[in-house]
Amino acid sequence: MTSPLEQKKIKLSGPSMVTANRTWDGAVIYRTSKQGWSTELPDAAVVRTSDEARALLAESVADDVGAIGAYIAPVEVADTGKVGPGNLREQIRSAGLTIDVPVPAQA
Amino acid sequence: MPLVKKNAGIVNDLFVHVADGAELPGDSAILISAARFLEDPETLSKRAGKTGVIWPNNRDLDDLVPYLDRLAAVALVFPSFRDGRAYSQARLLRERHGFEGELRATGQVLRDQFVFMLRAGFDAFEVKKQSDAEAFASTAKRYSVFYQPTGDGRVTALNRRMQLRHSESAGQ
Amino acid sequence: MYAYDELDRTLINERVSEFRDQVKRRLSGELTEDEFKMLRLQNGVYLQLHAYMFRVAIPYGTLSTKQLHALAHVARKWDRGYGHFTTRQNIQYNWIKLAELPDALEYLAGVGIHAMQTSGNNTRNVTSDQWAGVAPGEIEDPRIWSEILRQYTTLHPEFSFLPRKFKFAITASDHDRAAIKIHDIGLRLHKNADGETGFEVLVGGGLGRTPFIAKTIKPFVHGRDLLSYVEAILRVYNQYGRRDNIYKARIKILVHELGIEKFAREVEEEWKAMDDSALTLENSVIEEIRSRFSYPAYEKLPHMPDELKQAAHDPKFEAWRKNSVFPHKVQGYAIVTLSLKPVGGPPGDATADQMDAIADLAQKYSFGEIRVGHEQNLVLPHVAKRDLPVLWKALDRLGVATPNVNLVTDIIACPGLDYCSLANARSIPIAQELTRRFANHETANLIGRLHINISGCINACGHHHVGHIGILGVEKNGEEFYQITIGGRADENAQMGTLIGPSVPYAEVADVIEDIVEAYLALRDRPEELFVDTVKRLGVEPFKERVYATR
Fold it and tell me: Beta strand C127-128 with C168-171: parallel, antiparallel or unpaired?
């Protein structure tokens, strides 16, 4: 997926969210609609217009102490309303590695 | 923006930044742009008051070098703290051209570059943040070991080792 | 093994204490991320997809037993129990917390390990041949010079904010295992007609968006002039390297835009203007550094010990010995490569348990020393041949004795989209599938030496440009696709690979590689002709035909 670090213009391809990493430990976080962050993707606020996205991103970026690297990412919204990842990158960020990590041998 | 001088801490700035079109204030100490200085360097470098030149970081020093011994100060620029060209300029001014006047760091000057700047030869700092200016003295002492020789007179680690070796063998 | 003295240790400790203060000021908000980012990069701390990534320096790929135990401890205590060895001889941890980093760094400082300048626009790890000091025919140990350069480049006040990153590599053997031709400065140690030690200096190598092979700027720089000459190059780069566009900021672009002759003149002019007496390396200083390198007290051992003769009846041992054991300059000893490329495993990873066990084995069988290779394997550089059978059993139990070194399943891969925020596509699962397809050792041996390199994006951390087969992940309409190149080389005959055709989707990559290998087996003029030489002889066309005939 083209790295969102290369994002310049805000142009939504569909419903989107703002996501970042938590400053103190690097955990993946999602901007909620309550001016806060959650570690669960389903809690992410969904934006549908460039203006909404811009505003959500601005308030996210303003939290420089709590979060770093905020960017706009695509989501999929199921019929039930549940928010899910909109591309492989966000899938990996929310669900984890697609590979098995080396597991320390059992003693 | 506080001015910090090496070994003196936060001081009043004796130099006045004079904009390009503005009149020079009598015999005051002034800092003027390179462009302005080079319009009439002979006159400007000989004026009664102290003259300092702000030299851009993307320009060779050659045009400035002939006047160095008459200048009280040279101000170099860090447009972003990540742009390290002024470190090279500083070292060249001090070590190759023997400049002994005030060498001032301007632009985005932050605490975490103080040690590098001192080592490169800067002795005056237009510090962006008050808290950084206040922390200057303690920050300057952060490091006691230096690997590379620069014009700051500090003995490098390599030389200290050699000295230790010699004194060890001398003591035998 | 270089022994840090009090001065070296003091510097590392001072750095740790500075970083602890910087982290504190970041977490309190006194430093913004914009101000902090460069500072954390200068201590090897990246932000990745899931978490921070922490890159620890392993200078010229040399570790002691104690140090490897410490790396294991960091993995266990502050990470998720494993680490990844990189193409620049460093180690990376993928789950570290910023708030805990100062503690991890302080712990590592206790064994002389640091993370200075493993990232950022400064001078990075000075890498070298993982067989330095033990390779037969080596002119002299290049690590002496790597250490001299390491010290010179560490916290250099003039060169800590370069236009972009800057990488050095040194080789002292005819066969270049350090890939010097793809580095910003590559150094080939050799002796002149008078028998004096010096360097052929090459500049402007690098991969990424605009790959270049380094060019010779000066055929011989005397050892005593190494630092002053390097300073001249860095000063020219610092002043004239582009800062307007990060994709054009490496020295390779400056060398390309000026031309090597003009660039060489600029450097020569700067060098002549320098009062280089301060940087001239006196013999006494070089010898001082050399004296801090300790070498094993090798025994006088027979060329063919009984233990080896007896073990020869074990086909599994023999398969491993023939593949992973290399000649040593001292009779009776061997260089042993530990494959971190198990079938189905992520290339270059080791668990904390493995690291501890390898550290102990190094203590017992390798005079307490381990090396890290840029091909992401480990090396035990001083193994007595009589110990090979017992060592092998232990390595096999640990899962680091897959006899695939330099073969098709000895894949170099970047972390890719599973970990890295720069990536366009995943690389590890591609590597895993390939190791499964070619798991059969007979097949792998039949194919012979074949280097596959996988990068998940154009930044080329997997060095795909110089792979015999290079695989580059790209994105097309939200899907993972891969471009395949063949015929690249990273050694003294370094060259970039050639694209064979349009990119192929994720699910087809392993099939394509199988087709390429089948084509090679059919086309080679004799079994000893390596894949890369068949490509050289026949060009890309026959491979392209085979791959795209049905696609």
Answer: parallel
pTM of the model: 0.95
- Contact between C50 and A24 using a beta-carbon 8 Å cutoff: no
Mutation pick from B82, B95, B138, B162 vs chain C, by most beta carbons of C within 10 Å, is B82
* pLDDT tens by residue, B98-122: 999 999 999 999 999 999 999 999 9
Q: How many angstroms separate the CA atoms of A22 and A3, rounded?
A: 19
Residues of B in contact with C160 (CB under 8 A): 84, 87, 116
Tens-place pLDDT, residues A80-93: 999 999 999 999 99
How close does chain B come to C40, measured CA to CA in Å? Answer: 11
| CATH of the domain spanning B3-141, picked from 3.30.565.10, 3.20.20.70, 1.10.760.10, 3.30.70.20 | 3.20.20.70
CA trace torsion C342, C345, C346, C350 (10° rounding): -60
Q: Which residues of C touch B (CB under 8 A)?
A: 5, 7-8, 10-11, 14-15, 17-18, 22, 30, 35, 38-39, 121, 151-152, 154-162, 235, 238-239, 243, 273-275, 278-279, 284-285, 288
**Rounded distance, CA C231 to CA C229, Å?**
5
Phi/psi for C85 (5° steps) reads -90, 135
CA distance A80 to B140: 60
List per-block mean pLDDT (blocks of 10 residues) for chain C, which spans 551 residues.
Answer: 91 97 97 95 95 96 97 97 95 97 97 96 94 95 96 96 97 94 97 96 96 97 97 97 95 97 97 87 92 95 96 97 97 98 96 98 98 95 98 98 98 96 96 97 97 97 96 95 97 95 96 97 96 96 92 79
Find residues 35-74 of chain A whose CB sits inside 8 Å of chain C: 64-65, 68-69
The secondary structure of residue B93, as a DSSP letter, is: I
